[in-house]
Amino acid sequence: KWLRVSSTVVVIFITIQTGLLLFMYARHSSFLPHSEEKPSQVHILILSSWRSGSSFVGQLFSQHPDVFYLMEPAWHVWVTMYQNSAKVLHMAVRDLVRSVFLCDMSVFDAYMPWKRNLSDLFQWAVSRALCSAPACDSFQRMDITNEMACKTLCGKYPFSKVEEACKTYSHVVIKEVRFFDLKVLYPLFTDPSLNLKIIHLVRDPRAVVKSREQSVKALTRDNGIVLNTNGTKVEDSKYLVMQEICRSHVQIYETATQKPPDFLKNRYLMIRFEDLVRDPLSEISEMYKFADLSLAPRLESWIYNITHGQGPGKKKEAFKITSRDAVNVSQAWRNVLSFQKIKKIQEVCRGAINMLGYQLVDSEKEQKDLSLDLVLPRRRNQFSWSSFSPKN
Ligand SMILES: *[C@@H]1O[C@H](CO)[C@@H](O)[C@H](O)[C@H]1NC(C)=O
Ligand SMILES: *[C@@H]1O[C@H](CO)[C@@H](O)[C@H](O)[C@H]1NC(C)=O
Ligand SMILES: *[C@@H]1O[C@H](CO)[C@@H](O)[C@H](O)[C@H]1NC(C)=O
Ligand SMILES: *[C@@H]1O[C@H](CO)[C@@H](O)[C@H](O)[C@H]1NC(C)=O
């Protein structure tokens, strides 16, 4: 009797299995729409430029317990092949970003010593995922981690931990400043193994110049690559790098919003640093929504703290946005730069300033009059996916 029951169970079991197999077969055959085959992981690329607040935005993602974050992994490509131009390196950078999204860290073989630790990865300690389990045993996944403490405790773990950790997350987020053309990324949008979304972070070019002036030396190698100087380091005294950065923001924004291909639908979000500074909680929730991330209470408390200048070590944090001096910070260039300089920047970046919604200043009087708001209200949804008309 027992045997009979047991064989009935087996028959039922086999029937269910066959049904499942048939169902899976149907899903993978062409009877069902291809959209169902998108991978379950979400891949977010924060596309920005030097000194535009991207480290801050990167932290907003890095500290999320569902996110595996790397800050500028393509730094390794540029450092290794510094005699090439940004344009030539685009493809190697894209390939590296794709591999990292897929948690295939063997791509770093080309750029790193064969024997390597976690700490050989550029800016590894800003990644909460590399400071907590399973990459490092010193912190929990839900912890808010801090770069200094992580550097002390987690640096000697083997490099293989990067890949092991990556595979345990639902979201992989990469911040890059080394793309100057959205079309270079098209193959990643159409790649069925990826589920790519882009957050394009921009900032007023005049504020960017003010910030770049505070780190002239640190930028000279990257400048050389942008300007294709065959490995010679250069200062950006004539704003030629700024010109290229502004050109690329215009190209990326235009390509994504004016008659974009179907595969970009709902996969591009432009964020202005100034809006983030003025109303951080609403901009952050928009980014999280776009990225399919939820806001847990602990993370919300941390975000509240860092955007209101509270919590431990507030002075030394890389992102000291406080509501009280938020507008001051984003307007500091108006007191610091000479009108001559501003005129020159406005010349090379006129297109970007207009397109991204900033106002030009025509005189030193306008420059210094802080009651004059140069950040135009953001026109969200000025573009509708279904109703654009063809150009005449
Ligand atoms: C990697 O970690 C090991 C073990 O702690 C250490 O002996 C070695 O020096 C480290 N290597 C590098 C390149 O930091
Ligand atoms: C680039 O520099 C290297 C030496 O640093 C030199 O051998 C090479 O000829 C240069 N290439 C060009 C195109 O100038
Ligand atoms: C935020 O700041 C408050 C007050 O300083 C502190 O008690 C709390 O732990 C902080 N929250 C986080 C997540 O750091
Ligand atoms: C903001 O800037 C104004 C004018 O430069 C200054 O008087 C004020 O103290 C600043 N406020 C803060 C909070 O830094």
TrEMBL record:
Gene3D superfamilies: P-loop containing nucleotide triphosphate hydrolases (3.40.50.300). InterPro entries: Carbohydrate_sulfotransferase, Gal/GlcNAc/GalNAc_ST, P-loop_NTPase, Sulfotransferase_dom. One of its GO terms (biological process) is sulfur compound metabolic process. Its EC number is 2.8.2.-. Residues 43-351 form the Sulfotransferase domain. Its main location: Golgi. GO terms for cellular component: Golgi membrane. It comes from the Eukaryota. Coiled coil: none annotated. It is an enzyme of class 2 (transferase). The chain crosses the membrane at residues 6-26. Belongs to the sulfotransferase 1 family. Gal/GlcNAc/GalNAc subfamily. This is Sulfotransferase. It comes from Crocodylus porosus (Saltwater crocodile).
